[in-house]
Amino acid sequence: MDDLAAEAGRHRTRRQRLATELRRLRDLAGISGRDLARRIGISQSKVSRIESGSVIPSLPEVTAWSEAVEAPAQTRELLTDLTEAAFTEMHTWRAALQQQTHLQDDIRDQEDQAQLLRVFQPAIVPGLLQTAEYARRVFSLFDPPYSEGDLPMVVAARLQRQLALYDESRKFEFILTEAALRVRPGPVRLLLAQLDRVATLSTLENVRVGVIPQDAESAVCPPHGFTLYESDSSTGDSFVEVEVTHMRLIVRGAEDVATYRRQWSLLGEMALYGDAAREFLARLGADIRAMAR
Questions:
Q1: DSSP-assigned states of every residue in 146-174
Q2: What angle do CA 255, 42, 229 make, to 5 degrees?
Q3: Could you give the strand order of the β-sheet that contains 247-251, starting from the edge strand earlier in sequence?
């Protein structure tokens, strides 16, 4: 089994083991799903989804479940460990790219599950806002690298993801730092075109772009970028994706997701929006042109 399959298998195993153990404990206690749902304050359908492994319960729900079935202390500790492990997924880039040429289709499927996407990026323009040439230059700098023959396919797949921005039933919010907007993976003209692209997309009714100037007083200092995938209760649970150099991390714990929501709120207080953001982008473009002369 390769690394990617092993990672996915371990996550499914942790999740399924938790589901199996919770159902076993309910059966041993002789409590119906309806009665258990009433005791811990969730719906009977959610109890069923938890026991099938399709939904991961929160730690407070697992604690309440343990109390309702009078699980022994050692079993409660096991359930806590299984729950915490099930809420975090780790996927290395190297292992993922051994299975396929690129991950853009997987990311698009993930984005399609969210009603609201919130992206904070301190280091580079987010993929959904990139021009084709900017995306090509960025992909050419990846490690592990893409081959020259694969680059057109990867860029085309990224541009395909961007079609979602024109779906008015969905919402997108971006917060970018000035440093991210100044990153130049190619000639000055490339960056100027990219700034124009960000400004243009910010005029869409369902797209909100915030820009944090370098001289803004910090309300929070996240050490990395992140993406919040916000879903309504009928489509699934919200989660966060964090990309680091060697892997991407998926975080589903309610308390952890709440931490990222708080950080998003504080970042929003630092950002310029609407006409103020577009005026800032225009001034930034003029500054870059002047420096290039």
A1: PPTTTHHHHHHHHHHHGGGGG-TTSEEEE
A2: 40
A3: 88-92, 247-251, 239-243, 226-230, 116-121, 171-177, 207-212
Q: Which helix (H) or strand (E) holds 131?
A: none
Q: List beta partners, residue 241.
A: 227, 250
Rounded Cα–Cα distance for residues 152 and 71 (Å): 56
Instruction: Please state, in angstroms and rounded to a whole number, the distance separating the CA atoms of residues 135 and 74.
Output: 51
Q: Which domains does the chain have, with CATH numbers?
A: 3-86 (1.10.260.40), 90-292 (3.30.870.10)
- Taking alpha carbons only, the member of 58, 116, 89 closest to residue 242 is 89
Greatest Cα-to-Cα distance within the chain, rounded to the nearest angstrom: 79
Token pair 């280091």 in the structure block, residue: 123
Per-residue pLDDT of the chain (293 residues; tens, 9 = 90+): 344 444 444 545 777 889 999 999 999 999 999 999 999 999 999 999 899 887 888 888 999 999 999 999 999 999 988 888 887 777 787 777 777 888 898 899 889 989 999 999 999 999 999 999 999 999 999 887 888 889 999 999 999 999 999 999 999 999 999 999 999 999 999 999 999 999 999 999 999 999 999 999 999 999 999 999 998 754 457 899 999 888 888 888 888 899 999 999 999 999 999 999 999 999 999 999 998 87
How many beta carbons lie within 10 A of that of residue 146, not counting itself? 18
pTM of the model: 0.77
Q: CA torsion, points 128, 132, 134, 135, in degrees to nearest 10? A: 60
